[in-house]
Amino acid sequence: MQRVPLVLGNWKMNGSVQANEALLQGLLGSLSPQADAAIKQGDLQAGVAVPAPYLFQAATRLRSSGLLWGAQDCSNEIAGAFTGEISADMLKDFDCQFALVGHSERRERAAESSDLVGRKLGQLLNNGLMPVVCVGEPLSEREQGSAEDFVVEQVRAATKGLDEQQLAALVIAYEPIWAIGTGRSASSSDAQAMHATIRHELSQQSQSAAQAVRILYGGSVKAATAAELFAQPDIDGALVGGASLDATEFANIIQSACPASQSLH
Ligand code: PGA
């Protein structure tokens, strides 16, 4: 099945109005005509997950570009007395197309469980937003040889109870924790093996949804390593942290996912 490649930047807690302006303009100016055309034709998707206070700025700057903008988290609640939370409905108000949920930095720092992540993604689906569900094992699990079991359990818990259509609307980002921000990316073959495992797990719920779900790799993705990752049959794009803060580098990663420069799947 032909899946549209997807490259998303995750700015994390970085930026300012001024710096974002330069980064977004730089990114738009650095996209090749080929990538720009592929994005406008719907053959490639790319975008940025920005800190919530800058969603309006991202929406304003990116509205006519074809690039996507989204948030880095979303509440599991609909509305009400939940100080500091941001609802899926509010994200929709800023015309976000997607939001990350379950990033390991939130699972670790805010003690988010897979069950909570599942409820957050439910809110996104109810509001027509694309959930990008992050999963990934810590180094200890990889060293013990239990990385696949760990990730499969995260996928199972987060997707429990979804119907076929909801499942097909998900994006999953496999981000081994030991590869995030360390400069130590998973090898393309290790990443491919985990992506195939995730797709196999999804196929237990629905064969056709499993073929439709895009599985992104994240963890120290750079322009120099992106093409090799994207050449793998089950790697449908990337979630890019540090390198997405550099307009040229990020544009080069997007270029590597361009269908004409990379015969994807
Ligand atoms: P990194 O972050 O690219 O800086 O490793 C990826 C992420 O955490 O999404």
Write the layout of secondary structure elements.
Elements lengths: L5 E5 L6 H14 L2 H9 L3 E5 L5 H8 L5 E4 L16 H6 L4 E4 L2 H6 L4 H13 L3 E6 L3 H5 L3 H13 L4 H5 L2 E4 L13 H16 L3 H6 L1 E5 L4 H8 L6 E4 L6 H10 L9
Parallel strand pairs: 1-2, 1-8, 2-3, 3-4, 4-5, 5-6, 6-7, 7-8
Bound molecules: 2-phosphoglycolic acid.
Secondary structure class reads: alpha/beta
By CATH, the architecture is named Alpha-Beta Barrel
Number of helices: 13
Coarse shape: globular
The H-and-E topology, N to C, reads as EHHEHEHEHHEHHHEHHEHEH
Reading off the top of the CATH hierarchy, the class is best stated as Alpha Beta
Q: Radius of gyration from the CA trace?
A: 17 Å
Euclidean distance between termini CA atoms: 8 Å
Number of strands: 8
What proportion of the residues is helical, as a percent range?
40-55%
What's the arrangement of strands in the largest beta sheet?
A: 1-2-3-4-5-6-7-8
* Strand content bin: 5-15%
Detail the poorly predicted runs. Answer: none
State the CATH superfamily name: Aldolase class I
User: Sheet bearing the most strands, described?
Assistant: 8 strands, parallel, barrel
What attributes does this structure have?
single chain; 265 residues; alpha/beta; TIM Barrel; 8-stranded parallel barrel; 13 helices; binds 2-phosphoglycolic acid
Would you kindly provide a written description of the structure presented here, covering whatever features stand out?
By secondary structure, this protein is α/β, with parallel strands linked by helices. It has a single domain, classed as Alpha-Beta Barrel (TIM Barrel), CATH 3.20.20. The protein has helices at 17-30, 33-41, 55-62, 88-93, 104-109, 114-126, 139-143, 147-159, 164-168, 188-203, 207-212, 223-230, 247-256; strands at 6-10, 45-49, 68-71, 98-101, 130-135, 171-174, 214-218, 237-240. It has an 8-stranded parallel beta barrel with strand order 1-2-3-4-5-6-7-8, surrounded by 6 helices. Strand 7 (214-218), helix 12 (223-230) and strand 8 (237-240) form a beta-alpha-beta unit. Helix 8 (147-159) packs across helix 10. The chain is globular, with a radius of gyration of 17 Å. The protein starts with 5 loop residues before the first strand and ends in a 9-residue tail after the last helix. The chain binds 2-phosphoglycolic acid. Residues 10, 175, 180-181, 218-221, 239-243 line the site of 2-phosphoglycolic acid (PGA).
